[in-house]
């Protein structure tokens, strides 16, 4: 026979042990449910990677044929888009063209499909219906990567490295791979050079984690300088000047007008009548 005190103490120890283990059991359960929930996305990514591998092979086999050189215009014809088969159409039967060297804006209410349309222009989304052509060549899975090589994009929220201003503009940590003259040129075009030049360490100034040592407007101008440093033919701005005053934005746009051959596509909520857009 067991003594009551021994039984009580044993049960108490077991209960105490289970109490201590409960957080671990809870963590295991949370991890398990997360794996189950995300398994669909993992399978989709895996499937897309396999598809991408097949497309990549086809691209290599037809490398010259898939090259995209932007010389004349981008043409969107009867573009419609919805995120799923049963969803509402975000964009419905839009047709327009963008000439090389022009400055155009996309304007509309929140949720009207501006960013979605910009994503289609950049080849990040495929239209549900309609087509996009560049100089008469249809953009497809086989050549979209070549099309994207012509584009520099600046989002509204700029990601900055915990590094120097110079490294953030060049998006590079190797000094040997940076062109200092191009960095300064890009900063001047983005109207951020004077601010950088006033700092004690100038372009060697560290910006902190995600640019916490800078204002929103300064971050956006560094983002624009980064895009210009890449020297692409098309610059897309998705509310990338929202933290700037109208005077600074106007100066930047006037600087961009002086660049030969660059095409600007911008999403903005501003009054565009004073900013000199083509349409």
Silhouette: extended
Structural class: alpha/beta
Question: Which consecutive residue ranges, at least 5 long each, have pLDDT under 50?
Answer: none
Task: Give the ordered list of helices and strands.
Answer: HHEEEHEEHEHHHHEHE
Strand content: 15-25%
Radius of gyration: 26 Å
Number of helices: 9
Task: Report strand order across the widest sheet.
Answer: 2-1-4-5
Average pLDDT confidence is 85
Q: What kind of sheet is the major sheet?
A: 4 strands, antiparallel
Distance between the termini: 94 Å
How much helix is in the residues?
A: 40-55%
User: How many strand units?
Assistant: 8
Main features:
about 15% strand; 9 helices; about 280 residues; 8 strands; alpha/beta; four-stranded parallel β-sheet; four-stranded antiparallel β-sheet
Describe the protein.
- The chain has 279 residues and is α/β, with parallel strands linked by helices.
- The protein is built from nine helices and eight strands.
- It has helices at residues 4-61, 63-66, 114-121, 144-148, 165-170, 180-189, 193-198, 216-229, 246-257; strands at residues 73-81, 91-99, 103-106, 129-134, 137-138, 151-154, 234-238, 263-267.
- The strands form two sheets. It has a four-stranded antiparallel β-sheet, with helices on one face. A four-stranded parallel β-sheet has the order 3-8-7-6, with helices on both faces.
- α6 crosses α8 (216-229).
- The chain is extended and about 95 Å long.
- The model has no long low-confidence stretch (mean pLDDT 85).
């Amino acid at each position: 026979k067991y003594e009551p005190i021994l039984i009580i103490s044993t049960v108490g120890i077991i209960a105490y042990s289970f109490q201590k283990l409960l957080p671990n059991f809870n963590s295991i359960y949370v991890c398990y449910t997360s794996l189950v929930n995300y398994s669909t996305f993992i399978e989709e990514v895996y499937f897309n990677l396999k598809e991408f591998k097949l497309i990549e092979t086809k691209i290599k086999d037809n490398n010259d044929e898939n090259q995209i050189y932007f010389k004349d215009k981008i043409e969107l014809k009867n573009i419609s888009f919805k995120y799923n088969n049963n969803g509402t159409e975000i964009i419905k039967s839009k047709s327009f063209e963008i000439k090389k060297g022009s400055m155009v804006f996309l304007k509309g209410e929140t949720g009207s499909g501006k960013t979605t349309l910009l994503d289609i222009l950049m080849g990040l989304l495929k239209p549900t219906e309609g087509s996009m052509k560049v100089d008469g060549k249809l953009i497809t899975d086989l050549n979209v990567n070549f099309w994207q090589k012509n584009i520099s994009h600046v989002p509204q929220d700029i990601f900055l490295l915990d590094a120097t201003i110079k490294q953030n503009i060049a998006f590079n940590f190797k000094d040997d791979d940076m062109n200092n003259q191009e960095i300064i040129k890009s900063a001047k075009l983005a109207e951020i050079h004077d601010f950088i030049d006033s700092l004690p360490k100038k372009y060697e100034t560290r910006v902190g984690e995600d640019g916490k040592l800078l204002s929103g407007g300064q971050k956006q101008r560094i983002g624009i300088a980064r895009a210009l440093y890449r020297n692409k033919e098309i610059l897309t701005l998705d509310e990338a000047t929202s933290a700037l005053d109208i005077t600074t934005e106007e100066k930047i746009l006037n600087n961009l007008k002086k660049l030969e051959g660059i095409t600007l596509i911008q999403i903005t909520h501003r009054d565009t009548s004073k900013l000199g857009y083509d349409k």
